Amino acid sequence: MMSVEEKFRIVRSVGEECIQEEELLNLLTKKPQPICYDGFEPSGRMHIAQGIMKTLNVNKLTSAGCKVKIWIADWFALLNDKMGGDLDKIQTVGRYLIEIWKAAGMNLEGGQVEFLWSSEEINSRAHEYWPIVMEIARRNKLPRIVRCGQAMGRDERHELTAAQIFYPCMQCADIFFLKADICQLGMDQRKVNVLAREYCDDIKRKNKPIILSHHMLPGLKKGQEKMAKSDPSSAIFMEDEEDDVISKINNAYCPPNVVDKNPCLEYIKYIVLPWFSEFKVERKAESGGEKIFTSFEELAADYEKGDLHPADLKPALSKALNRILQPVREHFKHDENAKALFMKVKGFTATKRSN
Hints:
Strand order of the largest sheet: 1-6-5-2-3-4
Oligomer: single chain
Number of strands: 8
Number of helices: 15
């Protein structure tokens, strides 16, 4: 049986930031199966951070005894006018994303992972949900809610739709509606999770949701702090073909001797090493020969010194990523349901680009 300390080490490793560590340790000591919540808007193709990093994180959490509720935020995608505000298209994308996680190796055995559609859950338990939304809205001034939205300039705030004001109140309510002990979302969702903790202070609730925010992978181009679905060359997508992966990595920003803000090194740190527990570089003997790195610190040291060159790192990275993605490609080639979903989503995104 896993010790509380070991559970804490595994769960804590999921987050770049944890608010608060002592609360997390206390939760794992007292509750055998804590509830972790993660949500996503079905809004198009899935990039590798959402596909592989989420798979890694969910598998870590379930291995430590957590139950993970994945909130398929179809109504939220509608509020954000995703897929042209067409709920049927949004739900098709949602089903496609679940197929990817299954193919990528997310451990769905034993019911420790539950996919919940926001539209279904809210409609079936409206009497529970909407009073929480209204109470959160009642207790917060407009500027506080606006700060939880996307980063925007002062002039842009006057262009907000009512839906964009409503959205953070609903997202905050999700946490309590799902009875989440841990909010396991990206660093970009930190503000609304903090709003949930502040709401607990307002209503004098002692057990606050713990915020476990995971790292956000940068885009592959210089200066891209976040992957952009609108720019296909900024990210590896889960059903990219081998040649696509090789081409994107070959063209990625990867300055020699520079570790900081180097997207290729970030891919190795957050995807390849956690997946394989090693990173294998194949080189000619005169260039240093084959080397297997088992820690990011070792790899970063070699790269900074110039002992590992981008010309050797990039092919090794492409090869590792293609190994990770191959089961997903196979699934979408041979499973008729998955293939049909992918063709529909491909059609939606092609139509969106041409409009």
